[in-house]
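Case study: AEC family transporter.
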Amino acid sequence: MDSTTLALLERIFLTVLPLVAIVSVGFFYARAQHTDMTIANRLNIDVFCPALIFSVMSAKSFDLPTYSSLAIGALIVVLGSGLLLWPISRLLGVQSKTFLPPIMFNNSGNLGIPLLVLAFGEQALPAAVVLFLVENLLHFTVGIYMLDHRTNPFNVLRMPMIIATIAGLVVSTFEWTLPAAAQVPIDMLGQIAIPLMLFALGVRMTDVDFSNWKIGAWGSLLTPLSGVVIALALQPILQLEPVQFSYLLIFGALPPAVLNYMMAERYNQEPQQVASIVLLGNISSLVVIPVALAFALQIG
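Here is what the predicted structure looks like once written out:
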């Protein structure tokens, strides 16, 4: 085995190990001690993630047009996965609004942000946040509409993460500088978001239900496959820079977001089947993610 291959394997190992370690801490702690993450998850969605997003978006180094093609690619990966696999849901005899949302809306927050930062360094954080925002915006508009056609898509404008995005872009566009007394605590709050996402994912993994393992197995296979296939097909059109193409490939390979299960439970849309797709998809990512990283790191 040559030195280049060893270096690549070491980089993959050092990228995946911290993620697995923190998720494992959450999993084993929740197995030993009943752990209710409801309040912590709400704080992460309403406070810590918006602080992280504002911190990144308001930075002088953040240049939105740089990531416009990447954002378009992410949008097509999300929506395209649903269109591509809609006939498969019919063949499997599963309701499309049960099967497609976890396929389309991936774990770009809990897993995607820390994965890209660990694999490519802090310079990947703005791109990771853009990918997360595109997926999240689509989830809270298209995703909710798929579950309930009566929903108002403009409610997304009241989400703290969207408000933080707009505020951060305004600060960046006008090149304002917040006083350190404000910027430092915002940055510190944002630093809580990523490890808390991973810990919460580990806690959620204790709820693995294998009663619907067949649909879960199909979902765990088709989620990364559809995302990567669409990302590969888009590259000749979008012609992303190599590093951004690597980001998009990893984005396409991510497992389903845990939020899909919460949404299915809220709208009573066969939550146990959705839980199987989500949880088996995240377990299978232990194999899928290193393979995707091996390919993406050689490109980027």
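For the exam, be able to explain this: The chain has one domain: 3-299.
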